[in-house]
Design goal:
Layout: H1 20-28, H2 32-42, H3 45-55, E1 57-60, E2 72-74, E3 80-82, E4 89-91, H4 141-152, E5 153-161, H5 163-171, E6 181-187, E7 191-196, H6 205-218, E8 224-229, E9 246-250, H7 260-276, E10 280-285, H8 294-299, E11 301-304, H9 317-327, H10 336-343, H11 353-360, E12 365-366, E13 374-375, H12 377-390, H13 393-406, H14 412-421, H15 424-427, H16 430-433, H17 436-450, H18 459-471, H19 482-492, E14 518-525, E15 528-533, E16 541-548, H20 566-570, E17 579-583, E18 586-590, E19 592-593, E20 596-597, E21 605-609, E22 612-614, E23 619-622, E24 633-636, E25 646-647, E26 656-657, H21 666-675
Parallel strand pairs: 7-8, 7-9, 9-10, 10-11
Antiparallel strand pairs: 1-23, 2-3, 4-22, 5-6, 12-13, 14-15, 14-16, 17-18, 18-21, 19-20, 21-24, 25-26
Helix pairs in contact: 1-2, 2-3, 9-11, 14-17
């Protein structure tokens, strides 16, 4: 039997923990850095060269540094010792190597489910608001009439004789065909109203109606005309009338539209045509007049519909619209009147009448109509989180009371869904808290009527519950009905491969006592996790074993530490570190894995700048890569194989040791890889 020193012994090569399948997956995903690391770990120099060429790397011969004579320094014993040369550091981009690690195991004890709390049958919404919601107008007629009287009332002869003028004319010996009448300002003589019914102005349609009705009470039928302009129309029907007639537009003249320039030009041409015909163009604008271009003000007589409000000049229109949209986000349906009432809950300097049009044109709104608009479900969840975290508690409570008043004339399930999705601060409002038991009884009865597993649910019930699922957020975590609704949702979608579990879903909610316990192996194949039967053929990297009866397994990411540099600043090492300190090369830590301890300085896990790694020989360098990097430091373990040791994480996060794996030091590994290089004897370096 040949000894270990015999030349006839079959040479062995170190093998990594990854297989060729992992390499193929990495190449298919386009992760060339990970594929190169796998090829180097495999120990096959020819394979490593092929992958390096495919990844866009090139070989560079090591630069021969001039030999330096080592300076000798006296040691403590009176002799001399040579001074070690300073390490050479070259910038290299770090490859992101995803690796899963089991850090916590929480067994779920089997047993009988907790008894349900006593419930009462749903008997209807007995506390429904009695009074309908009030829709506050932009301005009532008593405030608008003085504004409109100036431009809409022209001097006209009255019935009374002007005695002073009559005496003056007779004193001049002038012949009077008829006695002059006293002149007074009156509405008209003719007034034509143009209502802009564009989709962006839906929030102001009630205000347009109120102004039109007030003018109808003031003017005779023959003196008042009306026309409508809608989206897609180039211009309204030109009103009939001679010189001196007035044209009143109830709209923004395109100033609050996304296509503002084009619409403003159309209204500008119409105003010039009216003035050329001797008519007077007037516009009642439902937004701040400063949003109207100056050229419009030169042709049209502009009147502000709402009383002017202060505004922060540094705040954009988009920010004001986002604020109002965040306030109304708990509503399933946003009516124009609800939007107006919610805006008036904000301070005067945070929103104005024009903000309503900005919200109504916001891309997060879908299904806009005169009855109401709906928020995009995905965007609505983000806005509702901001509603609970960024708005003041008293504002949340006031909007909850306002929302309840607007739901009094709708089916009760709309309000009950909105109520259970409100944050606790809003649910605690005095007007709202009394409806919580009624809302929970309603959903409890709904789950009971659907039967076990939802088998008794009808088509309309399933359609409505599907919409509730898409909008639900805090509803899943309700203390009384949340678990029942999650079980019903899972039962209805158990066979759906694209089903997305609720946020608060836990595997122990689903009980399957009739199924056997299955033992599963958790393995990593490339960058993904696989759960296979424990007796299956070995493949991938084995991470852990687990058991399951219902087939549901929950995987959660580790919580991130907001202060990742606290380790070095505090001076307190983590619990997994055996030793730590600072030497000539920077910060370092050592740890033990299954009794294997890092013993020398080369094996230490170090904190190095992002993109830096030590090298002493030739380099495998990507074409066009920068020589240095100024990024923040990160922890990096350089001595272990791909699927063992520690996982380096970016931005200075502390490394976490993996529970399995052992390997020789990085120095020995590089020496073995260098011995496997081609005949040119170009040494390899880990970059």
């Amino acid at each position: 039997m040949p000894s270990s020193e015999s030349p006839s012994k079959t040479p062995t090569r170190p093998r990594g923990a990854c297989g060729r399948a992992d390499l193929a997956v990495a190449l298919a995903d386009g992760n060339t850095d990970l594929a190169l690391a796998m090829a180097l770990a495999d120990g096959n120099a020819a394979l490593a060269l092929a992958v390096a060429e495919f990844a866009g790397y090139e070989w560079r011969a090591p630069e021969k540094a001039p030999k330096k004579r080592l300076k000798k320094e006296p040691d403590g014993d009176g002799g001399e010792r040579p001074e070690l040369p300073s390490p050479e550091i070259v910038a290299r981009p770090l490859a992101e190597t995803p690796f899963w690690q089991q850090t916590r195991y929480e067994p779920i004890e089997e047993g009988e489910p907790a008894p349900r709390p006593p419930t009462t049958p749903y008997r209807g919404w007995n506390l429904r608001p009695k009074n309908p919601p009030t829709i506050p107008p932009l301005a009532d007629w008593r405030e608008l009439e003085p504004k409109l009287r100036g431009p809409l009332c022209l001097p006209q002869p009255g019935r009374a004789v002007d005695l002073e003028l009559t005496v003056r004319l007779l004193g001049q010996a002038l012949f009077l065909a008829e006695l002059p009448r006293e002149r007074c300002r009156r509405w008209g003589p003719t007034l034509h109203v143009i209502e802009d019914r564009s989709a962006r102005l839906i929030p102001y349609r009630l205000d347009q109606y109120l102004v039109r009705e007030a003018l109808r009470r003031l003017l005779p039928v023959h003196a008042l005309g009306r026309s409508v302009i809608r989206d897609g129309m180039s211009a309204p029907r030109l009103p009939e009338g001679g010189a001196g007639s007035i044209v009143l537009v109830l709209g923004d003249l395109g100033c609050q539209s996304g296509t503002r320039t084009e619409l403003c030009e159309r209204w500008l041409r119409l105003g010039r045509d009216l003035r050329a015909a001797g008519r007077v163009p007037v516009a009642l604008v439902p937004g701040p007049l400063e949003r109207c271009p100056a050229r419009l003000a030169e042709v049209w007589r502009l009147i502000s519909w709402e009383r002017p409000r202060p505004r922060d000049p540094e705040e954009s229109l988009e920010q004001r619209a986002e604020r109002l949209l965040r306030l109304v986000s708990p509503a399933v349906r946003i009516e124009p009147g609800l939007l107006r009432a919610a805006r008036l809950l904000l301070p005067p300097d945070q929103a104005d009448a024009g903000t309503e049009a900005d919200v109504w044109q916001h891309p997060d709104l879908i299904g806009r109509s005169a009855a109401g608009a709906t928020l995009n479900p995905e965007r609505a969840k983000q806005l509702r989180d901001e509603f609970s975290s960024r708005l003041a508690p008293d504002l949340q409570a006031r909007f909850a009371g306002l929302l309840r008043a607007w739901r009094g004339y709708l089916p009760e399930e709309i309000w009950f869904e909105e109520l259970l999705n409100l944050p606790p601060t809003a649910q605690a409002a005095a007007e709202v808290v009394q409806d919580l038991p009624c809302a929970r009884d309603y959903f409890t009865d709904f789950v009971r009527d659907c039967g076990e597993g939802g088998t008794a649910a009808s088509g309309s019930d399933l359609e409505w519950f599907g919409r509730v699922e898409r909008r639900a957020e805090r509803l899943w975590g309700d203390e009384r009905v949340g678990d029942d609704l999650q079980r019903l949702s899972y039962a209805l979608h158990e066979q759906d491969s694209n089903y997305r579990f609720p946020t608060d879903f836990h595997p122990d909610l689903i009980r399957r006592p009739d199924r056997p316990v299955r033992r599963l192996a958790i393995k990593q194949q490339g960058g993904t996790l696989e759960f296979v039967a424990a007796e299956a053929l070995p493949s991938g990297s084995h991470l852990a074993d687990c058991t399951s009866r219902n087939g549901l397994i929950q995987v959660e990411p580790l919580p991130t530490d907001p202060d990742r540099n606290a380790f070095w600043r505090s001076g307190q090492p983590p619990s997994w570190a055996d030793d730590w300190g600072t030497d000539d090369y920077g910060h370092w830590v050592t740890f033990s894995v299954e009794g294997v301890t890092q013993k020398n300085a080369l094996d230490r896990t170090r904190c190095v700048p992002d993109g830096f790694a030590g090298r002493r020989a030739g380099t495998l360098r990507r074409r066009g890569s920068p020589a240095f990097s100024n990024a923040q430091p990160r922890f990096l373990a350089v001595r272990h194989y791909l699927h063992s040791g520690t996982v380096g994480s970016s931005d200075g996060r502390e490394p976490e040791p993996i529970q399995r794996g052992r390997s020789p030091s990085g120095t020995r590994k590089l020496e073995r890889l260098s011995s496997l290089s081609p005949a040119s004897q170009r040494p390899l370096a880990w970059t």
